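Entry type: protein chain
Record version: 2
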Amino acid sequence: MPEYTLFCPSLDTTPRVARDFVVSVLRSQQLDDLADDAALCTSELVTNACVHAKGADAVLRLTVGEPLAAVRVTVYDGDLQPPILRDGCLDENGRGMWLVDALTEGRWGTEPDAAHSVGPPLGGKGVWFELGAPGPSGLGR
């Protein structure tokens, strides 16, 4: 399974860079049909990491499942608080995880940040989502 890592400094431009990174990888793997949803979900997770981890850097890990057309993106940050899934999307702020939940059909969650293998632990958590082929994709949880 190909795995890609992006270090994400807590900057205003980081969500855009992370989106572009994910889209580039998915297109290179001929997974264009997942690129738009993956870009939006990635943007939400990276934005949350930049806003809520109080200036700490984050690490993005992108895993592409083979032979199934599946992708898993995990964003590790230094914040221990899990994301909040709010009902509906009427408010301008706070609807990011609702979008992630809707686009991934509920295929998202959290894990300890010790699960990332690149660089030192951040002392927080990882928030992940999966898109593509459902079921035993070999992407791990």
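Comment: The longest strand covers residues 58-65.
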